Amino acid sequence: MKFTALICGAALSLAATAGWAQQPAGSAPVRPIGITLERAVEIALDNNPTIRIADMEIQRQNYVRKETRGNLLPTVSGSGSYQYNIMNPVMFLPADIFGPGTGGAMRMGFDNSYTGGFSLSLPLYVPTLYKTLQLNDEQMRAAVESARASKVTLTAQVKKTCYGILLGESSLDVLKKNIEYARLIVETTENSFKQGIVSEYDLITAQVQLSNLAPTMIQIENSLKNARLLLNMLLSLPLDTPLELAEDLYGYTDYIDTDPSREIDLSRNTDLALLDAQAGILRKSYEIQRAQRIPTLAAMGSYQVLSQSNDWRIGHYQWKGTAFVGAQLSVPLFAGFTKNNKERQLLNSMDQLKVQRGYLEENVNVQARGALDDIFRSQEQMKANETALEQARKGYRIAKTRYDVGAGTIVELNSAQMALLQADLNYSQSIHDYMSAQTDFDQVLGKEEQGKL
């Protein structure tokens, strides 16, 4: 039957979204916690691990930038050493340097040698360091954009999961009403059969109709449990936390935007923005590589004290100090063409990324247009289904009245009930489809506040 296929489709859709979750066994029933969709999104953004990881990455990039800036400050280091000379150092002097018989190999020094001191280095002009700071800015931009992308994606996931739950609850309510209708029909038909007014075929038909609804309702209930588990996971709540959405799917009809003039603005799309940030990182990496060709200049200074002796009477040692200050200029001349090849690698990566962005932009544009078409299609379906629902209600009332007075058959009544059930389900489905399409459209555009919360 058509209505059964529609219900099964809704059930399978929910099961596909959250079928992996398992309901904890043996949990005591507790009162559900009422929650709105807006509050669900807030909890998810506060607690979900993906958001926390993204925020931690922003903090890490901040530390990276501080580390780079620290390289602009002076570097001071201390050192100390002790050396025991088993054989004293040898010095070779010219023959007869101090008179006849002098010169040649001479051992000098003492058994114990001590050295201690401090050294200082200050970068004066290091182009690679300045470009690295700019690279850190691009990396921070990428981290911030990645965090925003996580929030946009998570918001869409929470909203679509909630819409799926609301659709399941709406379908379940419709099924319960129709089961009650079918049960009343069975009771009425059974009484009429006992009185000999209707045939046994009519009674069996009514009973089969009632029996066909029960398994579908069980399937929807199980799918709803799985969908609620998925919502708890997205909100980072214990899986046994009972949540109940304090909203109704039909209430979203008041927020449907019927304006056909919707602009597709991809300037905030997270995928494109992340590629742009990656392109910025590659560009700054190339500039850093180019800067390695430029000379660097650094100031330096050193102070040392040293002493030597053959005994261990440290208090009587003579300590002498040495110190110097100066500048060091480093000029890169030749590095085996490694710099050239590294630059070509980066340029090649930049060209690849440019082609990738063009293809991605076309793909995202198709996604946006598809979501927009789904929005308009859902709006048209909603109007048609709303009209069909009113007609189905009217048809059911007529068929019920005809059957009660004996002018209609059980087949007519069952057919009217089927039409009403399917029309009600179709209307709920079209509302769900519209809200899901609107969520997809907002996600493609990169809106952090997606539609109606």
How does this structure look, described?
This protein folds into two domains: 2-15 and 31-71 and 126-294 and 335-445, Outer membrane efflux proteins (OEP), CATH 1.20.1600.10; 75-125 and 295-331, Outer membrane efflux proteins (OEP), CATH 2.20.200. The chain has helices at 2-18, 37-47, 49-70, 127-194, 200-234, 270-291, 338-404, 410-445; strands at residues 33-35, 75-84, 90-93, 104-107, 112-125, 243-245, 296-309, 320-330. With 453 residues, the protein is of the alpha+beta class. Helix 1 (2-18) runs parallel beside helix 8. It is built from eight helices and eight strands, in the order H-E-H-H-E-E-E-E-H-H-E-H-E-E-H-H. The model is unreliable at 1-28 (pLDDT under 50).
Strands across the major sheet, in which order?
2-5-7-8
Mean of residue pLDDT values: 85
**Helix segment tally:** 8
How would the global form be characterised?
elongated
- Uncertain stretches: 1-28
Text of the CATH class of the largest domain: Mainly Alpha
Number of separate domains: 2
Q: What's the architecture of the largest domain in CATH terms?
A: Up-down Bundle
Oligomer: single chain
CATH homologous superfamily label of the largest domain: Outer membrane efflux proteins (OEP)
Q: Give the CA-CA distance, first to last residue.
A: 36 Å
Describe the sheet with the most strands: 4 strands, antiparallel
Radius of gyration: 40 Å
List the secondary-structure elements in sequence, H or E. HEHHEEEEHHEHEEHH
User: What's the total count of β strands?
Assistant: 8
Strand content: 5-15%
Looking at the structure, the CATH topology of the largest domain is Outer membrane efflux proteins (OEP)
- Structural class estimated from helices and strands: alpha+beta
